[in-house]
Amino acid sequence: MAQTSWKFPRAFWTANTVELFERAAYYAVFIAITLYLTDVVGFDDVAAAWISGAFSAGMYFLPPFTGALADRLGFRRSIILAFFLLSVGYFTLGALPYKTIVPPALVVLMFGGSFIKSIITGTVAKTSTTETRARAYAIFYGMVNVGSFTGKTLAYPLRINLGLTSINFYAAAMTFLALVVVFFFYRAAAAEGEGKSLSETWRAFVRVVTNVRLLVLILIVSGFWIIQQQMYATMPKYVLRTVGPLASPEWISNVNPLVVVSTVMFVTHLMRHVRAITSMNVGMLLMPISAFCMASSPLLESALGRSIPLIGGITAHPITIMLIGGIVIQALAESFISPRYHEFFSLQAPKGEEGLYLGFGHLHSFFSSILGFGISGYLLEAYCPDPKTLTPEQALTAYDQANYIWFYFAAIGLVSALALYMYAAVTKRMDARKA
Fold first, then answer.
1. What values do phi and psi take at 316, rounded to 5?
2. Domains observed in the chain
3. What is the pLDDT of residues 286-303, one digit of tens each?
4. Strand pairing partners for 315?
5. Looking at the predicted structure, is the pLDDT value of residue 1 above 50?
6. Which of 89, 144, 145, 364 has its CA 20 to 30 A from that of 174?
7. DSSP, residue by residue, 214-236
8. Whole-angstrom Cα distance, residue 376 to residue 385?
9. Picking from 155-164, 184-193, 244-253, 274-283, which range would have the lowest pLDDT averaged per residue?
10. Are 111 and 60 in contact (CB under 8 A)?
């Protein structure tokens, strides 16, 4: 059994391969999206935050409904359409960076990305069994993070050498490559329950959101993802404004997928005999610690100065070091939470509706995108404002309290961790009564 449990059909591996390409495109653009919206398109911090948050949230809200369309169109035709929309959307962002053009282009990307989410997660569910599902989602999540790491690694030299708009052209090339792979190699997995209408999907949505137990879990886990969203909402501008324009938020954020890829299989195996909610609770308890770590750079600076020597003659700013430390902790938390969360939601689904339910499981990212980016815009404006808006006198002290931003997210993480602990205790008692 141990030798065969890691074997999956061709559709599974093709889906995971194109997921890597799509994630490499998405994360390269997403790590720079608020910078692009302010520095290239011309929005202020608050507007850029809400637009970015709405873009991210839309891609998590739409999958159940685009998933219904995918069931009618067929997974193969739908995934081809998805990568076509993504290629067009990314190319438009690079070629036409105007306030009237960018929001519609982001809507195109939202629809393309939402098709991908429903189809890929649905394929993973339908090509795995109850016994192999945790491993299947561990592989899927590993591929997501390899794509994330690759995209953000390339985003930094692209931004420095060719400008922010070049990242969008790179993303268009990656999704076009995925389109070619899908066209020649992807064959949809066999599935029951195809041909769902939008009205049926809406009724399924109502079933999910009226399931109090699942809805409360979604809202609690949103607290974790609000903090994770700050790698894209807050951290890029925070680093560039406090450390300097040559700083590399893209590479700092890459610590996350590097640690996740290195630990997710081990953590999944380690926690295989415990309840999914227990594994998630371990991760949630790590999140406020990560935010406090990010807020602690002034302590490190007061002790060791603004340039700290590392191995091999390399030096780093205290802000960079503490951000990396916090992201390492976040990544460990993610390895405990994300694979088991997907597993939990997939096991709640009726036969043939796995992709549909997993799409609704992403509602935590819908809430965290809106709230995480929205909060970020106001906090940046208050504690780490755009240097273009400052007078020379204001610039001298504008960033003295920039680290306060992370205390707000530490509080969110602490409340979420305590809420999940209470949730686990209550649901365990409920299950014991039923037994």
1. -145, 150
2. 10-434 (1.20.1250.20)
3. 999 999 999 999 999 999
4. 309
5. no
6. 364
7. HHHHHHHHHHHHHHHTHHHHTHH
8. 11
9. 184-193
10. no
